[in-house]
Amino acid sequence: MPSPQPTPIPTRDPSRPELRAFWVDAFHPGIKSPQEVDQLVRDLQAAHANAVFAQVRKRGDAYYTLSIEPRAAELSKLPDFDPLAELIRKAHAATPPIEVHAWLVMMPIARHGETPSDTLHVFTKHGPDAPGDEQWTTRAFNGETIADSNYFLDPGHPAAAQYLVNIATSLVQHYAVDGIHLDYIRYAGSQWGYNPVSLRRFLAASGRSAAPAPTDAEWQQWRRRQVTDLVRQIYLESTALNPALKVSAATIAWGAGPTSQAQWLSSRTMTDTFQDWTSWMQEGLLDLALPMNYD
Predict the structure, then answer these.
(1) Vertex 284 angle, CA 280 and 290, to 5°
(2) Which parts of the chain have pLDDT scores under 70?
(3) Alpha-carbon distance 100 to 19, whole Å?
(4) How far are the Cα atoms of 97, 144, 184, 210, 222 from residue 194, in angstroms, in the given order?
(5) Which residues, listed in sequence order, are joined to residue 152 by a DSSP beta bridge?
(6) What CA–CA distance (Å, rounded) separates 266 from 220?
(7) pLDDT value at residue 6
(8) Host H or E run for residue 57
(9) 82: closest CA among 41, 122, 45, 37?
(10) Tens digits of per-residue pLDDT, 155-213?
(11) How far is CA 233 from CA 60, 107, 168, 169, in A?
């Protein structure tokens, strides 16, 4: 009996370019010194990668100099070093060039027990203790303010949403990035979204007088719309500055993949995080969705 033959590897179609990328997080070495950037570019070349998604916003801080937010505290010993600018310069100069996508963690702005001391930080100015409408962080139905050990901005607060848009557009305006990658562009869970301003807006729009339950269908759809409106504004304003820009998002893919529209509508993506990313793709608000299917 003849031995089985290995399946031949298909020839890559040059008319359909591939994206071969690595994520580089800001919690470990990667872009925090010129030497790290040099090593990263060498590693990318050795792996034949043609793109890198580098985390340049962790929790309301910036791993780049020309930002509306404070620089990350761990960069204080290198005041003249701009990690994002250095990465862009060296990645684009590589042969062949390597794309740089700026990875931005959007909603989380501070970790419980590790709150920032910088007076210019968004948490310091607009955290849960800020007065009145200056409080931009989300709340749970039961009044809690800490979600998954973090404080999150509430996309239903117009000022908070505009702030996130400004972060993206300011970066695109000042840096020749090939793309921006939106992470945590969602709610922390179905219990969240009860920022006083956000809740007041919903009650005014719905004609109600009492806070809805987390499972209320109209309230769920309203929260989905807040996230979608935010993604739309980021996409439109960022691509107006750079039409070649690629906008991507880390999209929730919890549980078994839906096999029908009904299953999608009842998935945790739609009912827990309110991240209707299929509609974003259909509307053209994303150039690339990166499903977080490791979970």
Answers:
(1) 60
(2) 1-12, 295
(3) 12
(4) 45, 10, 18, 12, 12
(5) 108
(6) 11
(7) 58
(8) strand 51-57
(9) 37
(10) 999 999 999 999 999 999 999 999 999 999 999 999 999 999 999 999 999 999 999 99
(11) 19, 15, 10, 10
**Alpha-carbon distance 59 to 42, whole Å?**
28
User: Cβ distance 94 to 83 under 8 Å?
Assistant: no
Residue among 213, 244, 225 at smallest CA distance from 99 = 244
| Token code pair at residue 107 | 């909603």
The structure tokens listed for 291 are 């499903």
pLDDT in the model for residue 17? 83
What is the distance between the alpha carbons of residues 82 and 85, in angstroms, rounded to a whole number? 5
Task: Name which of 277, 283, 282 is nearest 236 in CA terms.
Answer: 283
One-letter amino acid identity for 98?
I
Q: Take residue 159 and report the two structure tokens written for it.
A: 């000022």
Residue among 74, 141, 152 at smallest CA distance from 112: 152
30 vs 228: CA distance, rounded Å: 31
Nearest to 104 by CA among 152, 164, 56, 171: 56
